[in-house]
Amino acid sequence: MRKFLAPSILAGDWWNIGEQIEATLRGGADLIHFDVMDGHFVPNITVGPEILGYISRRVDVPIDAHLMIEDPDRYIPEFVRAGANWVSVHIENVVHIHRTLTLIRELGAKAGVVLNPGTPLSAIEEAIHYADYVLLMSVNPGFSGQKFIERSLERLSLLRDMRDRLNPDCLIEIDGGIKEENIAEVIRAGADVVVVGSGIFSAEDVESRTRKLKELIFSATAV
To answer: For residue 133, what is the enclosing H or E element?
Structure first.
């Protein structure tokens, strides 16, 4: 299965975010990860569909919108209209997960379900049948630059087993604390899509860092 690198622009320099996004694309980024926070579900406020629209009109890779917001069903159509190609919602925050995942798919986007670090994998055992991808958080959501929770490696492996058993076409995405030092480990543990924020945007040369991470993903996949 192909492996994807998704730079998380939450960690970028918003004065120069357009240039930085272009640098990640030159370095081989496969997706742009777009974090949406409302200050309620998580303790931070970020950006909305209007900003996503500006980006989608200028890039030729999919945009992966991670909705960390209350009542996501209300806003999903706006994000898809703005150009989100992938949309994920939290199992902890959606009462009717089948309805929400179906809505995303009917709008023409890939549908993802997200798990926080403290949520058991069993919580998505039914939802995974209707998801195009599962996003496993390896930090508590809300802020960039947090330390990777080591227990996430075991959770990745268990999630891969669940995916292979219940929905082999479903991708596994991981987000939080991933850098050069541990990106190969998460690939070997089962990740198909790796979200990297400060591990890319803290570099002086964003393009070179992106390219290096892509090389590490390729090497880990080839083993």
So the answer is: strand 133-137
Find the DSSP H helices in 44-117. Answer: 49-56, 72-82, 97-106
Residues of the chain with pLDDT under 50: none
| CATH architecture group of domain 4-222 | Alpha-Beta Barrel (3.20)
The predicted structure's pLDDT at residue 154: 97
pLDDT at 179: 96
User: What digits encode the pLDDT tens for the residues 49-96?
Assistant: 999 999 999 999 999 999 999 999 999 999 999 999 999 999 999 999
User: Which one of 30, 35, 64, 132 is the catalytic residue?
Assistant: 35
CB burial of 157-190 (b: ≥16 within 10 Å; e: otherwise) equals eebbebbeeebeebbbbbbbbbbeebbbbbbebb
Which residue in the list 30, 132, 175, 192 is annotated as catalytic?
A: 175
Q: Collapse the DSSP code of 197 into the 3-class scheme (helix H, G, I; strand E, B; otherwise coil) and give the result.
A: coil
The rounded distance, in Å, linking the Cα atoms of 163 and 81 is 29
Q: How far is CA 178 from CA 57, 94, 136, 150, 200, in A?
A: 28, 27, 12, 11, 9
Among this protein's residues, is 35 annotated catalytic? yes
In this prediction the pTM is 0.96
Residue 38 is a catalytic residue = no
